[in-house]
TrEMBL record:
This is Very-long-chain (3R)-3-hydroxyacyl-CoA dehydratase. Its EC number is 4.2.1.134. It catalyses: (3R)-hydroxyhexadecanoyl-CoA = (2E)-hexadecenoyl-CoA + H2O; a very-long-chain (3R)-3-hydroxyacyl-CoA = a very-long-chain (2E)-enoyl-CoA + H2O. Catalyzes the third of the four reactions of the long-chain fatty acids elongation cycle. This endoplasmic reticulum-bound enzymatic process, allows the addition of two carbons to the chain of long- and very long-chain fatty acids/VLCFAs per cycle. This enzyme catalyzes the dehydration of the 3-hydroxyacyl-CoA intermediate into trans-2,3-enoyl-CoA, within each cycle of fatty acid elongation. Thereby, it participates to the production of VLCFAs of different chain lengths that are involved in multiple biological processes as precursors of membrane lipids and lipid mediators. It comes from Uria aalge (Common mure).
Length: 250
């Protein structure tokens, strides 16, 4: 599993990519589908954001806000798998850059954290670290899907572009920290319950230790996180500097 990150951390992938392998864009039908998909996903993450704010105002505390947005979070985070399926298909056809591979890892790690950690280990759902990555994901996705929507419509406001390539500087480390702390908090409960572990002997002569697997997942953040973070820093310099040069030339 790779670090999923936040704050625009997903590598540019197709809709908003600055360097596609082919200049040919999607057809009218595909564009309409992608616009609808991104509008729905933007609205979904806005629902999550509103749910968090309403729950905080009602409770007067930021603790255990996860329960107020659990269902929409699972739905819309899992919905990103459809996006990755389309992107991988485009990648195989040579339409989008190789960075989409990193994007696929990011999405899978987020879905993994949503279901295989936070959902499966209920004891961690009250951890503040869960709110940390949920807030980072929420802000990130509202910006990201808005970015894709306006890019497809060829009317991208500079503010959204700036937010897409700037807020990740804070949100990405924030999200990764929340993810790692949540996995770490889950370890004692996984070891005690033997969750998802398979012991020998069995007819398949196969064993699996989910506790060890989670530790390996945490270690995988070490090589992947810097790659994704510096990729986005590079994209930020390229995209925003290009925008400034374009403004000066007008």
């Amino acid at each position: 599993m790779a670090a999923s990150g936040s704050g625009g951390s997903r590598a540019d992938n197709g809709y908003g990519s600055q360097q596609p392998r082919r200049r040919k864009g999607p057809g009218a039908l595909a564009t309409a589908y992608l616009v609808i998909y991104n509008v729905v996903m933007t609205a979904g993450w806005l629902v999550i954001a509103v749910g968090l704010v309403r729950a905080y105002l009602a409770k007067g505390s930021y603790h255990s806000l996860y329960y107020s947005i659990e269902k929409p979070l699972k739905f819309f985070q899992t919905g990103a798998l459809l996006e990755e399926y389309l992107l991988i298909a485009k990648y195989l056809l040579g339409i989008v850059p190789s960075s989409v591979v990193l994007t696929a890892f990011q999405v899978m790690s987020r879905v993994f954290l949503t279901w295989a950690v936070t959902h499966s280990v209920k004891e961690v759902q009250t951890e503040d670290s869960v709110l940390l990555f949920v807030v980072a994901w929420t802000i990130t996705e509202i910006i990201r899907y808005s970015f894709y929507t306006f890019s497809l419509l060829n009317h991208l406001p500079y503010l959204i572009k700036w937010a897409r390539y700037t807020l990740f500087i804070v949100l990405y480390p924030m999200g990764v920290s929340g993810e790692l702390l949540t996995i770490y908090a889950a370890l004692p409960f996984v070891r005690q319950s033997g969750l998802y572990s398979i012991s020998l002997p069995n007819k398949y002569n196969f064993s699996f230790d989910y506790y060890t697997f989670l530790i390996l997942v945490m270690i995988s953040y070490i090589p992947i996180f810097p790659q994704l973070y510096f990729h986005m820093l590079h994209q930020r310099r390229k995209v925003l500097s290009h925008t400034e040069e374009h403004k000066k030339s007008e």
